[in-house]
Write a structure and sequence with these properties.
Shape: globular
CATH architecture of the domain at 87-125 and 500-751: 3-Layer(aba) Sandwich
Keywords: Hydrolase, Protease, Serine protease
Strand order of the largest sheet: 35-36-38-37-39-40-41-42
Radius of gyration: 25 Å
Enzyme class: hydrolase
EC number: 3.4.21.-
Helix content: 10-25%
CATH topology of the domain at 87-125 and 500-751: Rossmann fold
GO cellular component, one term: cytosol
Distance between the termini: 43 Å
Strand content: 25-35%
CATH class of the domain at 87-125 and 500-751: Alpha Beta
Oligomer: single chain
Domain Peptidase S9A N-terminal: 73-493
Number of helices: 13
């Protein structure tokens, strides 16, 4: 996985590219599969829950400020650390908080003091937080299964059990697996149906650990074995186990120190990727079952520290593709699964500025290629035996970005973006072995909501059935099977939302705002039409990210209903630096144009106030990881504009981090943020880096979170930011810092634990806004 500072567990799902990643809290059925790792997210709207067992007060406190003033916040000690570059001197009194071993007693003591202070301040609303948690949990159908996916002779699916934190991985035999897959297929479950077989119960595995997460679960081509990758610390370093899928007994020894990139190469071998000392995926290995890991063969070592490796299988399952990518360049190797002894073959060469992704069908490779000239990508094809002979299938279009493609035996599904909205176009292909020519027209899949999110998911290559996931800000996550010949869509699964949920009570809108340079910025909006007054008096939560070309599309989150049903409006600001409006949208929000991300967000906030969706006294904002950078920069620039700030695992010590190549992600992200060893980038980065721009001024009420084992954003970044804010700020507003000592970038791993985090965050916002009833 390419790690980035940033995105998304959408429910919990991770948009992981290797960077500071995005981490959303949308349900699993709505969003995309695990991707590379960035300093990002995103969990959209979440925070770390209080660990205090303190009982709640029976009456409401008159104000958050009174409570905070009744006990002094922690004060971090100062140890002067001087840094000088280009004649510029910076003093970081809290640099000592960084301890790569995570064992420094003074550091751990300070983090615990902050956690205790957070517990103390929030103890008076613990009863209300618990009520919120019960309300949020009450919307979930706890005993449920995912939409079964037909794979070979089995239906595979995931199952939740009543009261359990984790899932079971299950399958059932298909009695007639020779029949052509159809959108009308259903998995039999009655007494006469083939029995359910539980391959792996995560609840059993998780009993031994405070944190547990499966990063990959892969059945072998003959379905006799399963390989799965598990993380038991939150540091995203995985151990792979192989088991007999029927007998459930271990096969061979564990593979340790891996990323979650894992694929079968036939029925008796695995490909996997490992990382270097700065957590950069740099080596791809071939492992033969029954042999020692020490004897595995390294197929490729990427020595350029600007590049990271990733791995995926073709839809045809005949090839594995290993890609090496930076932020601007990506080249691909192929491995013929039937000829692993031949090793990797260069499929697309390394050319600076050319980004290519590859799929396979029949005797052709399909290549999605992006360049400076063709920035929204084109789609070409070439014969397997002559990759230099290419045919353009879909040309570059200035207004349409090719996001990804999905290949089938007879069809091609193209996932695109136009004017900020996603779409799916399906093309029928000539028979395998026939010449390929430019594609014309195609059939578009239609969607009903004005703003929505749609994502690809695994489908059967040899069928005419495209499976995709759909949701909107008022439509629960749904799984559809689409017949690419007839155009028929059949709902296979809609996430159940209990508690009297009625989608017709909510309104979703799309508004545009002019940025400071005149660029039109889209916003996605949702509110309860029975409660929102739209007269400026409503509370509003504004979410933003804006990095790594990651698109934060309008998504559903059941816990958010606890805000909407109390009169909140929720808004996503699709600021530059993300990918919502195409490649140029991203280019105009990175490097020496990064400040566009921040000024776009401010423009959105000001416009929402002008349109009377809220007022300054009711405006809250949230961002995680690279979105936490957005929070930090904006709160320094316009602290008067917001009442509440939620900054999750925020990437806030930008300049110091990007100057240190020993920190994970730094070298590979110089093409994202800039290389501050160059004077121009140094001073530009310093002008917005949140830690470097904390000043003696009033700040809003703030909740900041971190994870001690976080490999994307070190816990010390938010730690020193909070310490400096406590030292410098001139107000009496509440500033809380919650560091999860047993988790990483994506906080706790259990599904109910994550709901508790939402309840805690919502309770903090409503406490500050004086919205907690006396009974709470």
């Amino acid at each position: 996985m390419i790690i980035r500072r940033g995105l998304v567990s959408l429910g919990t799902h991770f948009l992981a590219t290797r960077s500071r990643l995005l981490h959303f809290d949308t349900p699993l059925s709505c969003l995309v599969p695990l991707v590379p790792r960035r300093r990002s997210i995103l969990r959209l709207s979440s925070s770390f829950s209080s660990s205090s067992e303190t009982g709640a007060a029976s009456v409401r406190l008159t104000s958050t400020r009174d409570m905070a003033e009744s006990r002094s916040p922690p004060v971090a000690k100062k140890v002067e650390h001087v840094m000088e570059m280009f004649g510029d001197v910076r003093v970081d009194n809290y640099y000592w908080l960084r301890d790569d071993s995570r064992t420094n007693p003074d550091m751990l003591s300070y983090l615990r003091e902050e956690n205790h202070y957070t517990d103390f301040v929030m103890s008076g609303t613990k009863q209300f937080e618990n009520q919120l948690f019960a309300e949020i949990r009450g919307r979930i159908k706890e005993d449920d299964i995912s939409a079964p996916l037909r794979k070979g002779p089995y239906y595979y699916y995931e199952k939740n059990l009543q009261g359990k934190e984790y899932i079971q991985h299950c399958r059932r035999l298909i009695t007639d697996n020779k029949a052509e897959p159809s959108v009308y297929d259903t998995m039999p479950t009655g007494p006469d149906a083939p029995p359910e077989h539980v391959i792996l119960d995560e609840n059993t595995k998780a009993q031994e650990h405070d944190y547990y997460r499966i990063g990959a679960f892969k059945a072998s081509p003959d379905h006799k074995l399963v390989a799965y990758a598990e993380d038991t610390k939150g540091d995203e370093i995985y151990t792979v186990n192989v088991i007999d899928s029927e007998a459930l007994k271990p096969v061979g020894q564990q593979l340790k120190g891996l990323t979650s990139y894992l694929e079968w190469a036939g029925n008796d071998a695995l490909l996997y990727i490992t990382m270097d000392e700065i957590l950069r995926p740099d080596k791809v290995w071939l492992h033969k079952l029954g042999t020692e890991q020490s004897s595995d063969v390294c197929l490729y070592h990427e020595k350029d520290d600007m590049f990271s490796l990733e791995l995926h299988a073709s839809e045809s399952h005949k090839y594995l593709f290993v890609a090496s990518e930076s932020k601007t360049t990506r080249f691909v190797f192929s491995l013929d699964v039937s000829k692993t002894q031949d090793g990797l073959r260069v499929l697309t060469p390394r050319v600076d500025g050319i980004d290519s992704s590859v799929s396979h069908r029949g005797n052709h490779f399909f290549i999605q290629r992006r360049s400076t000239e063709f920035y929204n990508s084109e789609l070409i094809a070439c014969p397997v035996d002559d990759t230099s002979k290419t045919t353009v299938l879909l040309p570059h279009r200035e207004s349409v970005k090719i996001q990804e493609i999905q290949l089938f035996r007879d069809h091609l599904a193209v996932f695109e973006r136009e004017n900020g909205l996603q779409k799916i176009t399906v093309h029928r292909l000539p028979a395998e072995g026939q010449p390929l020519e430019g594609l014309q027209g195609g059939r578009n899949v239609s969607f009903v909501d004005p703003v929505y999110s749609v994502d690809s998911t695994e489908s059967e290559f040899s069928s005419r059935v495209l499976r995709f996931k759909y949701c909107s800000m008022k439509t629960p996550p749904s799984v559809y099977d689409y017949d690419m010949d007839s155009g028929t869509s059949v709902v296979k699964k809609i996430d159940t939302v209990l508690g009297g949920f009625d989608a017709s009570n909510y309104v979703t809108e799309r508004k545009w705002v002019a940025a400071s340079d005149g660029t039109q910025i889209p916003m996605s909006i949702v509110y309860n039409k029975k409660l929102a007054k739209l007269d400026g008096s409503d509370p509003l939560l504004l979410y933003g990210y804006g990095s790594y070309e990651i698109s934060v599309d309008p998504y559903f989150k059941a816990s958010r209903l606890s805000l909407l049903d109390r009169g909140f409006t929720f808004v996503i600001a699709h600021v530059r630096g993300g990918g919502e409006m195409g490649r140029q949208w991203y280019e105009n929000g990175k490097l020496l144009k990064k400040k566009n991300t921040f000024t776009d967000f401010i423009a959105c906030a000001e416009r929402l106030i002008e349109l009377k969706y809220c007022s300054k006294e009711k405006l809250c904002m949230e961002g995680r990881s690279a979105g936490g950078l957005l929070m930090g920069a904006v709160v320094n620039m316009r602290p008067d504009l917001f009442k509440v700030v939620i900054a999750g695992v925020p990437f806030v010590d930008v300049l110091t981090t990007m100057l240190d190549p020993t920190i994970p992600l730094t070298t590979s992200e110089w093409e994202e943020w800039g290389d501050p060893r160059k004077e121009e980038f140094y001073f530009y980065m310093k002008s917005y880096s949140p830690v470097d721009n904390v000043t003696a001024q009033n700040y809003p009420n703030m909740l900041v979170t971190a994870g001690l084992n976080d490999p994307r954003v070190m816990y010390s970044e938010p730690g020193k930011w909070v310490a400096k804010l406590r030292e410098m700020k001139t107000d009496n507003n509440v500033l809380l810092f919650k560091c999860e000592l047993g988790a990483g970038h994506f906080s706790k791993s259990g599904r109910f634990e994550k709901l508790q985090e939402d309840a805690f965050t919502f309770a903090f916002m409503m406490k500050v806004l004086d919205m907690i009833p006396a009974s709470g």
